[in-house]
Write a sequence for this structure.
């Protein structure tokens, strides 16, 4: 996903715990306190363009479905302004945390395509190209 956002003209910063706090994953094994849980839920990327930054959480699901419970089991997800990008066998879709909270979800038939998000004003041809990569990824999984 990093390459997709770079090709769309965004500056991309790896943000998840693996990148922000190297080595922390081993230390947090088995730790269930509030700080450890927040660190684990850090979004994967921060993308920036035209004076606007966005938290991006990237998920891969062969099923093409994503619901609020998939990211907020305990109803305490700390990144309320995050966007969730779902890569499936056929599509790259996007939904905001707030939309999930409002009862919306990503399904195989919904039209929440990444290329339709106003936050990105993306180039649909590039997204279609990346969808083809996603299809190849899932063929090998």
């Amino acid at each position: 996903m990093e390459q997709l956002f770079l090709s769309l003209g965004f500056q991309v910063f790896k943000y998840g715990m693996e990148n922000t706090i190297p080595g922390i994953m081993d230390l947090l094994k088995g730790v269930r306190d509030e700080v450890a849980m927040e660190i684990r839920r850090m979004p994967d990327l921060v993308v920036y363009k035209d004076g606007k930054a966005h938290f991006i959480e990237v998920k891969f699901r062969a099923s093409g479905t994503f619901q609020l419970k998939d990211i907020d089991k305990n109803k305490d997800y700390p990144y309320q302004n995050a966007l969730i990008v779902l890569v499936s066998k056929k599509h790259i879709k996007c939904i905001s945390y707030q939309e999930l909270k409002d009862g919306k979800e990503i399904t195989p038939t919904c039209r929440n395509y990444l290329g339709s998000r106003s936050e990105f004003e993306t180039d649909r041809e590039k997204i279609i190209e990346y969808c083809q990569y996603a299809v190849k990824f899932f063929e090998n999984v």
